[in-house]
Amino acid sequence: MVTAARAVARGASGMIQNETQVPVETIDELAARVPDGAQLAVPPDYSGCAMAAVRALIRRGVKALHLVGVPQVGFQGDMLIGAGCVATLETAALTLGEYGPAPRFVSAVKSGHLRLKDSTCPVIHAGLQAAEKGVPFMPLRGVLGSDLLEQRDDWRVIDNPYRMTKEQDPIVLLPAIRPDVALFHAALADRQGNVWIGVRRELMVMAHAARTTLVSIEAFTDDDLLADDRLAAGTIPALYVTAIAEAENGAWPVGLRGCYAADRSHLQRYVEVAATAAGFARYVDEYVGG
Amino acid sequence: MSMSVGSTPQDGSTAIDWRAEELLVATIADMLEGVRHVAVGASSPIPGAAALLAQQRAGGRMRVSVLGSERDNFFTDGARELFDCAAQGRIDAFFLGGGQIDGAANINLVGIGAYPRSRVRFPGSFGSAYLYFLVPRVILFRVEHSPRVLVPRVDFVSAPGTSPEHYYRPGGPYALVTGRCIFLFDKERRRFRLASVHPGHTLAEIREQTGFDFDSPEAVPQTAVPTRKTLDEIRHVIATKIARTYPAFAAHLFDGVPGGTG
Fold this sequence. Notes:
The complex is a heterodimer.
Chain A: H1 4-10, E1 24-25, H2 27-32, E2 39-42, H3 51-60, E3 65-69, H4 75-82, E4 86-91, H5 103-111, E5 115-118, H6 121-133, E6 137-140, H7 147-151, E7 156-159, E8 170-175, E9 181-190, E10 195-196, H8 202-209, E11 212-221, H9 229-232, E12 235-236, E13 243-246, H10 264-273, H11 277-287
Parallel strand pairs in A: 1-13, 2-3, 2-9, 3-4, 4-5, 9-11, 11-13
Antiparallel strand pairs in A: 6-8, 7-8, 9-10, 10-12
Helix pairs in contact in A: 4-5, 6-8
Chain B: E1 5-8, E2 16-19, H1 20-31, E3 37-40, H2 45-57, E4 63-66, H3 81-87, E5 93-96, E6 100-102, E7 107-108, E8 111-112, E9 120-121, H4 128-134, E10 137-142, E11 150-151, E12 173-178, E13 181-186, E14 191-197, H5 203-209, H6 228-243, H7 247-254
Parallel strand pairs in B: 3-4, 5-10, 6-11, 10-12
Antiparallel strand pairs in B: 1-2, 6-7, 8-9, 12-13, 13-14
């Protein structure tokens, strides 16, 4: 394992400001921290997806994941499902957006080989917010009368104990979601292990809520991200960060806000190739390896 | 999306051509008049274009949040902010679709057949189960108008069209816009009422292509065709804006229209 201190020594500045407690690892070492059976929280394609780490997870052959989309999940979900890494999928959607139906997800649903915990976006956000606060549940409006509620034995309905009305005011309670691991990609981290996520603050909530937070980044900066308020407001403090791996272009083939756009032709090709299990296997051979 | 093109003389001037998509954009923009804040979900280019057109007409006095857009999305507190914002009553209008939509305005974004092993699986419910309760003017939008989509009863209720009266529910369905017509939702009768039929379509055809029963006036009006001014706005202003979020859609719709893709 390469420590951040050694990373600094390799770096251009040569100034060691503060020895970090956040280990800096290779992408495969980072992926090795996700145990089989882990509850793994990942963001949607529009946020920061650690695609290089997801490929490393598939190479390693991780098994029986409980994958949580925060609040939905895209290509990385379809790939992990296609590679047989996922036992349970908890998400508001698995969507490839404009590229069309998610081939490996749809196939797994039909075969019955995937335990589905269908959810809705604000329920997942609320569950993570409960975990942030260290409380066991969160109330939320809406959702009543949805078949989602019928399917989920872990969601409850109570009468609002603070209601001002004579009639009952039913309100849904959702259990806290405390993922074993949050895994995402960001543009920048400093040598102390603070991670800049800018406006993509669902990544902040994920890091607050999870027991372990694994981050891949485009590059390190020698500046202190907490020294400038303009950056600090969009920075996850190292307190919440378990380990970091440097992975330039690590969100590819999806995009990373402010850094690069999605590789549209590659994503389109994925959807076409992954239409069959054999095609998906060829895709894995070519782009994932192992 | 059908590529049908209409041609209608207006105010004695020469006939102008419009596309089916432009009619829908113009129609939905009309429904957003007076709205303070409209949010548009992911993968919704026509509602997105309509919201930007309504904003343009309001002289900027309308907030538009296009989710998934880097430019037309002002939220700074993560993906949860939209939902918290809606629960506070800060969002007046939103769009929902559905793999299936029934006559009571229930929507299904999960799948066809018995859950969980859906015969046809859709992406999932997204925020529908929540936003349908909290946003006052929810416009259901689905171009495909067929018995396959507009069913007597959805196979899975992602979000119910109506709720018992004592439930806290400031939001709900306002209209259903399809490629053939516009329905308005009657909250008292808990069913749709046909409001207008798009040019080139008929009431008989709509009865045949709709799997649920609905109310209809004796004489059904035709949906207003877009004016030349509206078409100019769509092609010269909105096309550029919507291309920032939906480049493929903009390229398809505005291809060959002078100035449209600038």
